[in-house]
Structures are given as C-alpha cells and as structure tokens.
Amino acid sequence: MSNPSKFEDAEDIAKESLKLYINAYRLAERYSTIATNCYDTAEVIKELKKTDLQLK
Q1: Which DSSP category does 49 fall into?
Q2: Source organism's superkingdom (predicted)?
Q3: Cβ-based burial of 5 (10 A; exposed 0-12, middle 13-18, buried ≥19)
C-alpha cells in the first residue's frame, strides 16, 4: 500500500501528511534538545570530577 492515509481527497491527504511531518519534526526537536542537555550535563559532571580530583 503506497498511501496509508484513510482519506481519499488529495487535499485531506496533504493536510494529514503535513500534520504528520510537523509532529515528527517537533518530536525530533525535543529529542535533539534532550540529547544536547544530556551531553552538556555529562560534560559538566566530567569537569566537576576533574576539579574535585585537583582539589584533593
């Protein structure tokens, strides 16, 4: 099945496709932000460990 849409009308299919695309983009943006924050947190933890080792 090349078109999994439940709609027959081309305009409705296009609207549905656009909604799916926008939702996928937003989801990807959220995951990107989460991944960046996790990476930043990991880098901060590494630096804290280095600093802690230098203070001892």
Answers
A1: H
A2: Bacteria
A3: middle
Domain that residue 24 falls in = 9-56
Q: Please name which of 23, 5, 2, 21 lies closest in space to residue 13, comparing C-alpha atoms.
A: 5
pTM of the predicted structure, to 2 decimals: 0.61
Which tokens is 15 given? 């609207």
pLDDT along the chain (56 residues), means of 10: 74 92 95 93 90 74
Sign of CA dihedral 12, 13, 18, 20: positive
Give 3-48 as a DSSP string. Answer: ---S--SHHHHHHHHHHHHHHHHHHHHHHHHHHHHHHHHHHHHHHH
What is the count of structural domains for the chain?
1
